[in-house]
From TrEMBL:
This is Phosphoserine phosphatase. It is an enzyme of class 3 (hydrolase). One of its GO terms (cellular component) is cytoplasm. Pathway: Amino-acid biosynthesis; L-serine biosynthesis; L-serine from 3-phospho-D-glycerate: step 3/3. Gene3D superfamilies: HAD superfamily/HAD-like. InterPro entries: DUF4072, HAD-like_SerB, HAD-like_sf, HAD_sf, PSP. It comes from Caballeronia glathei. The active site is at 78 (nucleophile), 80 (proton donor). GO terms for biological process: L-serine biosynthetic process. Residues 3-49 form the DUF4072 domain. The keyword Lyase does not apply.
Length: 279
């Protein structure tokens, strides 16, 4: 395998010798000062490489020689804390003075401590009852930011012929705006019930939980006529794990430990466009 080492900052020459030794590689190739490729690396060395890279704020990935981004046909992304930097529901809750309470439930759910995502979401949305729906627009306009490298990653994926899917346990208000803004091909999320300009504290229709995320990836691949092995799935929380398990390549982005441990690749430091630099 090729071992690809990335960093948001220049990779010091002092890292070359220990990384080559740990990977049992030779002849490292510097693509630029933030990217290092070690050919013929031993994947069984992953634990030692993981420890070294974590200690030095480096991201690493084992990539098959000759693999290209164009081998894939779909990139599926979680929204909150993956494509964007915030958890929308936590920011909405801030407008009714309940951010800390809602954020605590969100964090426990994403770490996998609350096993029932439906219950977790229902509890959080119920706390928003009576809030003026204009708070959604304010969250989008004032607080929502794309994660580093998001637009570059999407442009590179499109250039390589990949379709894009945004699948979220968050809300359609935000996914639809991002679909229009970023030119995404497919989206799936939860619909907040709004009556007379106020949130009712309820979600309309099927809740997009881990099973629905995985099913959406499968259905989108079927619609595109590709195998799920040709999908890339990116996420950060435990409700992304089933979707990521369906994909041929899974990327944990600024993710919870349970997700990092299960993913093919973890980006803890570089942006989402680190995906392009793997190949």
């Amino acid at each position: 395998m090729n071992l690809v080492i990335q960093s948001p900052a220049p990779i010091a020459d002092s890292h070359l010798r220990p990384l080559v030794a740990l990977a049992r590689s030779k002849d490292p190739v510097r693509t630029d000062d933030t990217l290092l490729r070690l050919p013929d690396a031993d994947p069984l060395q992953r634990p030692d490489i993981d420890a070294y890279c974590g200690a030095h704020r480096l991201d690493y990935a084992f990539v098959a020689p000759g693999a290209t981004l164009a081998d894939f046909g779909l990139v599926a992304m979680d929204m909150d804390s993956t494509l964007i930097t915030i958890e929308c529901i936590d920011e909405i809750a801030d407008f009714c003075g309940l951010k800390a309470e809602v954020a605590a439930i969100t964090e426990a759910s994403m770490r996998g401590e609350i096993k029932d995502f439906n219950e977790s979401l229902t509890r959080r949305v119920a706390l928003l009852k009576g809030l003026d729906a204009s708070a959604l627009e304010r969250v989008y306009e004032e607080r929502l930011q794309l994660s580093p490298g998001a637009e570059n990653m999407l442009a590179g994926a499109r250039a390589a012929g990949l379709n894009t899917l945004l699948v979220s346990g968050g809300f359609t208000f935000f996914t639809e705006k991002l679909k229009a803004r970023l030119g995404l091909d497919f989206t799936r999320a939860n619909t907040l019930e709004i009556v007379d300009g106020k949130l009712t504290g309820k979600v309309v229709g099927e809740i997009v939980n881990a099973d629905v995320k995985a099913r959406t990836l499968r259905e989108t691949c079927a619609q595109l006529g590709i195998a799920t092995e040709r999908a890339i799935a990116m996420g950060d929380g435990s409700n992304d794990l089933k979707m990521m398990a369906e994909a041929g390549l899974s990327v944990a982005f600024r993710a919870k430990p349970v997700v990092r441990e299960s993913a093919s690749v973890a980006f803890n430091f570089v942006g989402l466009d680190g995906l392009l630099r793997l190949f």
